[in-house]
Amino acid sequence: MTSCSGLDDQRAQAETGTLSAPSEHEIGLLVDRFYDKVRRDGQLAPIFLGAIAEDEWPEHLATMRDFWSSVMLTSGRYHGNPVAAHRRLDGVAPEHFERWLQLFAETCQELFAAPLTGAFMEKARRIASSLQIAMFFKPEDLRVSGVPRHSPQSARG
């Protein structure tokens, strides 16, 4: 793990069981380091680099810092629509979310003690799941042989 102002305090708090929320600085560090990895990743880079021009990255990173501040600190700084933004992406498939989560977990583990990594990952998994449902769910996926899975008929064997 790398040493960073505030992270030593976080580790001490984790050892005593009194983990505080991440600081804005820690959120910014996570966002910057994570998206640096995304931009170099074989699976994710083509999607992100195709959607975000080089000169737009500072604005995107600022938006992501606001997003994670709102998620982790309930700061209310983010005012966007993640579903609409992700639906506009070209070439996204469900497996890309798994890679996103892998890189996010790897970055969290490099920066934070286990309790804070766990808190970030719990939120990240929920976000990924919600986005996948919004982007890829089809009502017909609930049907088996033309009968809704949750209907009384589907309970008959």
Describe the 3D structure.
With 157 residues, this protein is mainly alpha-helical. The chain contains 8 helices and 2 strands; from the N terminus they run αααααααββα. Strands 1-2 form a two-stranded antiparallel ribbon. Strand 1 (143-144) and strand 2 form a beta hairpin. Helix 2 (24-40) packs across helix 4 and helix 2 (24-40) packs across helix 6. It is globular, with a radius of gyration of 19 Å. It starts with 6 loop residues before the first helix and ends with a helix. The model is unreliable at 1-7, 9-18 and 153-157 (pLDDT under 50).
In angstroms, what is the radius of gyration? Answer: 19 Å
User: How many runs of DSSP E, i.e. beta strands?
Assistant: 2
Q: Give the distance, in angstroms, between the N- and C-terminal Cα atoms.
A: 54 Å
What oligomeric state do these chains adopt? single chain
Helix fraction by DSSP (H/I, runs of at least 4)? 55-70%
The helix/strand series, from N terminus to C terminus, equals HHHHHHHEEH
Strand order of the largest sheet: 1-2
